[in-house]
Design goal:
single chain, 442 residues, alpha/beta, Rossmann fold, 2 domains, eight-stranded parallel sheet, 14 helices, 8 strands, 11% strand, globular
């Protein structure tokens, strides 16, 4: 099905409110029983994926599983989750092809575009229906790049308006994880935000925009007025879409996947479920734990790959506010096994842009002081959870509790601005999933 090489394979398709395609939902328990499965690996893609990209990710990630399981007694099935995650078509990620040619192509495409492309405009219109007038003005500002503070203020207001949701939307309930909350780019001074994001793009190695003043070595100059900051404004738009998809991933997990797993527990109680998520997909499967019916105990492991959410999400007490806890404090107890978070120091999307978008602070050239409070789980691992373990890739995964796995040795390839954020298709990470779930053991 859908070009994925492993069998048996099913898909679960959710809309933005977490509603699942019912025929797929109902087919899963019956199919699992018919196939006499012992284990089911359920994988969710992250943001910036369309359906074909998600399918390609599942194909590549699942590819090592049959060989790794060849000598074991397990009968394993696979599920690919599909949810509406906006794809920024002018960005060279995600790239799940590890070849040198693919990496070179990604690097060549890494220079940001000065205008809103037609393809991205269509994607934004689908992701945020009814905002066509807002998108028209955003596109006009990016094309003209006015040298005026008022234009940046207007642009920031338009981004806020674009990603806003109604007050009764479930999205509002699943936006914050404990350490981040509403991102500073939506509340801070617009010009300062664009200054910080422009500098961050430069530090990540993104290319020079057309019209930007540069010296002989292609380094940005401080002249040129405010026009040079429109690449930061474009990044503000991208980060606005990023935040909206983060919010949506919690909704789909809590209201969508969680109840589906509950029905699976009723219809196929012997099947052991192993949740895997990449980027915001890691957030989605984590929030699915909060949506599990109270009696469901079929989730045996959760593996988070470069999770794009707060490293304090599972904390009982936030280090900077002891009266508050992380949004998912205690949900790890709904897993009959370990909660594993793979992280990498080479993930620039999470190491630089995630904390900046969560909370803008300091001047445009210094990012110090942001990362402790506003860090991501895919960069730092799980933080402030009593008894949590930290291991390196290749070491034995504990059978229970919260575990952070330093995967920097393999999650290390990728061009700007995201770095290695999408470099997750490795047999070593497939082994982490299987070991976390004790899949194939007698």
């Amino acid at each position: 099905m859908a070009g994925v090489g492993v069998r048996p394979y099913w898909e679960l398709t959710f809309d933005a409110d977490g509603d699942v395609e019912r025929r797929q939902r109902d087919a899963l328990p019956a199919g699992a029983v018919q196939e006499r499965l012992t284990d089911l690996v359920v994988f969710s893609h992250g943001w910036n994926n369309d359906r074909s990209m998600a399918t390609r990710l599942y194909t590549r990630f699942f590819e090592p599983f049959p060989e790794l399981l060849v000598d074991g007694p397990a009968r394993v099935g696979y599920v690919g989750v599909h949810w509406p995650a906006l794809r920024f078509t002018d960005e060279p990620i995600p790239d799940f092809d590890p070849s040198s040619q693919a990496r070179a192509t990604a690097r060549a495409a890494a220079a940001p575009e000065p205008e809103l492309t037609d393809a991205l405009r269509r994607q934004l219109a689908v992701a945020f229906p009814g905002r066509e007038v807002v998108l028209d003005r955003i596109a006009q500002l990016l094309a003209e790049r006015p040298d005026a503070r008022s234009a940046f203020d207007e642009f920031a207001r338009l981004v806020r308006e674009l990603i806003a949701v109604p007050e009764d939307s479930p999205d509002l309930r699943y936006g914050a994880d404990g350490g981040d909350g509403t991102p500073g780019m939506l509340t801070d001074d617009a010009l300062e935000v664009c200054e910080v994001l422009t500098a961050a793009l430069r530090s990540a190695g993104a290319g020079v925009w057309p019209g930007e003043a540069v010296d002989a070595e292609r380094q940005p100059l401080f002249g040129g007025g405010l026009t040079r900051l429109w690449n930061g404004a474009h990044e503000m738009l991208r980060q606005g879409g990023y935040y909206a998809m983060k919010r949506r991933s919690g909704t789909v997990g809590r209201l969508g996947l969680g109840p589906v797993l509950g029905k699976l527990a009723d219809g196929a109680p012997a099947v052991r479920v192993h949740l895997v998520g990449h980027s915001f997909g890691a957030r989605l499967v984590s929030y699915a734990l909060s949506g599990l019916p109270s009696g469901a105990r079929n989730v045996k492991s959760v593996t988070l790959l470069q999770g794009a959410f707060s490293h304090y999400t599972f904390a009982a007490r936030l280090p900077f506010d002891r009266d508050r806890s992380g949004a998912l404090n205690g949900v790890q107890r709904r897993i009959d096994g370990p909660l594993v978070a793979c992280h990498s120091a080479h993930d620039d999307a999470l190491g630089t842009f995630y904390p900046l978008a969560s909370k803008m602070a300091g001047d445009a050239t210094s990012f110090l002081g942001l990362f402790d409070r506003w860090g991501a789980i895919g960069f730092h691992g799980i933080q402030a959870v009593d008894g949590a373990r930290r291991i390196r890739l290749g070491e034995a995964v504990p059978a229970t509790g919260c575990v952070s796995v330093d995967a920097s040795a393999v999650v290390r390839r990728g061009g700007p601005p995201a770095g290695a954020h999408s470099d997750i298709c490795h047999p070593e990470l497939a082994r982490v999933v299987l070991e976390a779930g004790r899949v194939g053991r007698d």
